[in-house]
Amino acid sequence: MDAPAARLPLDETPEALSIAALYRQVHAAVSAAFPRGQQLWVRGEIQSINDRSGHCYIDLVDPDAPRGRDAPVLKVNCWGRTWAPLKQTLAQQGISLEPGTVVTLRGRVEFYAPRAQVNFIASDLDVSALLGRLAARRAALLATLGSEGLLERNRRLPVPEVALRIGLVASTRSEGFNDFLGQLRGSGFAFSVILFPASVQGAGAPASVTRALRAAGATDALDLVVLVRGGGSRGDLAAFDAEHVARAVATMPVPVWTGIGHTGDQAVADVVANRSFVTPTECGQELVARVRLWWDEVVASALHVARAATGALSAAALRDDAARRRLKSATHSQLHRHAAHLHRAVTVTATGSRRRLEEEATGLDRRATRLAPCVHRGLDRQHERVGTWRRLLAAYDVARQLERGYSITLRPDGVVVRSASELSAGDRVVTRFADGRAHATVDRVEPRHRAGDSGADTTEERP
User: Fold this and answer.
1) Which of 52, 227, 228, 296 has the smallest count of CB within 10 Å of its CB?
2) Which class would CATH give 136-291?
3) Distance (Å, rounded) from C-alpha 168 to C-alpha 157?
4) Which residue in 308, 227, 213 sits closest to 267, CA to CA?
């Protein structure tokens, strides 16, 4: 158990260290634990990495420790003179350092007083261990794709016999782009190429290639999609070992051919593609060879058809000449026979027409004689009906009703008053008679009440 802290008199001040003195003690402690010339190996997972300044700055964390705010972080500095050759070696081996990569670094511990920071100055990196982990990761990815049935999926898609509509995923600045197009342009065939540009190297290459493949897969009327890259080091193949690139190739709705590797190197994208070729040139040559084979068969078939057609046309010409001669003789005979028949028909028709016209004229006269009296009788009946309706309508004429002693009560605007309930005391009304009009003001309105069904007027007289 610790002894209780000693209490100082209120008028005494404890001796305090300066910040520089404190850091000198920390530096001495770090130097004692890790002498300046001592080199040691450290294994950690990259949390962040930045090499834009020419130097490389890495934050390492323990790969197997739980993450949190209190998790220890090691600041790693790899100066430019060390990082430049190391970065070149990594690129040649197809290795890209990124967050999540577990690395083993060799270097020394250093205390940096201006930032009160313990740094690890890296001088080397275990590339062999990284290669082993990359190979293991590649094998695991192939095993996963195989278990999901994706290794053979694109290979089972049939390639059209005449593949002329090509979707090209490539970088326009690469040699592979020009090598592949050069084969198609020099073939003489009518290839139609739609370019889906993508970056084929660097940290952003996997995402760029994946986007281009998906865009090509969403494009209608493509016979084949070709993924090529040209030149570069073995490290440039790293983008084509990425899982999302491999899955994009494997799940394409059209066959995918690749020309992205060199002799002895095969990326995961090559494994899952419909066909893979060593170079873009070889890929273009095979595509042209398929179309040329089909074209040669078409030409051979066309020559066979031409020769057969020539013989058939000659035989048909002979048969046609004989048929023409027979047809000419038969035509003359038929014309003479039909001319005689037509002359007889004209004579009979002319005689019969005159007789028929005379008969029809006689019948028409008889019908006209019978029709005239019927028309007159019908007109007389209609005149009588019209007179009857006129007399009936005259009985309902307003002027006639007024002459019989009736009157009509109107509002000043000319609207007929049809009920006492439409009027109120003080309303102006106009009464129309047969011989004039009377204007009046309503003094009061007395509605008529009905008593039972007798219809008697029960209105009381009021003074």
Assistant:
1) 52
2) alpha beta
3) 18
4) 227
Residue 233 pLDDT exceeds 70 = no
- Alpha-helix residue ranges (DSSP H) falling in 186-279: 205-217, 243-250, 268-272
Position 231 scores a pLDDT of 59
Would you call 233 helix, strand, or coil by DSSP? coil
Residue 38 backbone phi and psi in degrees, to 5? -75, 130
At 116 the three-state DSSP class reads coil
3-state secondary structure (DSSP) of residue 361: helix
**For 273-284, what is each residue's pLDDT tens digit?**
999 888 899 999
At the fourth CATH level, which superfamily is domain 19-125?
Nucleic acid-binding proteins (2.40.50.140)
Residues 107, 101: contact at Cβ < 8 Å? no
Spell out the domain ranges in the chain. 19-125, 136-291, 402-457
- The helix/strand/coil state of 450 is strand
Strand partners, 456: 451
Q: What are the start-end ranges of the E strands in 126-266?
A: 165-170, 192-197, 224-228, 256-259
The greatest distance separating any two alpha carbons of the chain, rounded to the nearest whole angstrom, comes to: 162
* Structure tokens belonging to residue 322: 């004989």
Confidence band of 458 (pLDDT split at 50, 70, 90) = very low
Structure tokens at 223: 């016979």
CB burial of residue 410 (10 Å; 0-12, 13-18, 19+)? middle
Residues 224/163, Cβ–Cβ less than 8 Å: yes
> Are 171 and 131 in contact, with CB atoms under 8 Å apart?
no
pLDDT higher than threshold 80 for residue 4: no
In this structure, the number of other CB atoms found within 10 A of the CB of residue 38 comes to 11
**Integer CA distances (angstroms), 238 to 47, 84, 146, 206, 304, in order:** 21, 19, 20, 8, 52
Q: What share of the chain is helix, strand, coil (3-state, %, to 5)?
A: 50, 20, 35
Amino acid making up residue 395 = A
Would you state the pLDDT for residue 355? 81
What is the structure's pLDDT at 449? 67
**Which phi and psi angles does 246 have, rounded to 5°?**
-60, -40
